[in-house]
Amino acid sequence: MRIIIFSLLLAAKVCAGQSAVPGAVTSYLETYLREWRMCRHEDYDKSFWSFYNTNTLPFFTAVDINDDNKIDYCVLVRKKNELRLVILLSDGKGFRHWLSDKFPGSATQLQYCLLPEPPGRMDVAYPVISSLILTNNALNVMQMENRACIYYWDGTAISVFLTM
User: Fold this and answer.
1) Which of 53, 78, 128, 161 gives a 20 to 30 Å CA spacing to 17?
2) Which UniProt keywords apply (predicted)?
3) Cα–Cα distance between 62 and 134 in angstroms, integer?
4) DSSP letter for each residue of 141-154
């Protein structure tokens, strides 16, 4: 419930034109991941904005991914033409980060959106039939309107479930 309320507050801030990325997140990225920068609206392909509202921050979301009752943050970052996902795991006083493998495609003309995914069952029929049961909140990585993958906590670490 707390995640839903936080997400609604985050959306309200975005729609009001305020920066929804907390200063602590920006500071952490600038300090510990200096060579990377947070993606921006201008990094996105123009066609992306026909699917998503330009008042949103598709490269950022908040979700308690490891079920410790602390808000974690997920951010798309880039370095030159390379794109990665950073998940900042909060301990209530600070963060530790997890950096994904390279995303497919270019860090310019982006088409990715980050969305929280509540617990539940995910079934995929293509390219192979597979299922995932999420016991905690997770992170959807959408490519335009298609779910590309889900990042989730497997009990000890971040794992990825490919859906495309």
Assistant:
1) 78
2) Signal
3) 17
4) EEETTEEEEEEEE-
Rounded to whole angstroms, how far apart are CA atoms 103 and 92?
29
> What is the CA angle 158-162-164, rounded to 5?
155
CA distance 133 to 124: 12
How are beta strands 112-117 and 158-162 bridged, if at all? Answer: unpaired
pLDDT for 40 equals 93
Question: Would you list the DSSP string of 46-66?
Answer: GGGGGTS-TTS-TTEEEE-TT
What is the residue type of 160?
Answer: V
Task: Say if residue 6's pLDDT is above 80.
Answer: no
Interatomic CA distance for residues 141 and 158, integer angstroms: 14
Contacts 24+ apart (CB under 8 A), 87-93: 87/139, 87/151, 87/158, 88/25, 88/28, 89/65
- Residue 136 pLDDT more than 50? yes
- Tens digit of pLDDT for each residue in 70-127? 999 999 999 988 999 999 999 999 999 999 998 776 677 899 999 999 999 988 877 7
Tokens describing residue 148: 């590309």
Number of domains making up the chain: 1
Give the type of residue at 25. Answer: V
pTM of the model: 0.84
Q: Sign (positive/negative) of CA torsion 136, 141, 147, 151?
A: negative
Q: Any idea what the Cα angle at residue 4 is, between residues 36 and 131, rounded to 5°?
A: 75
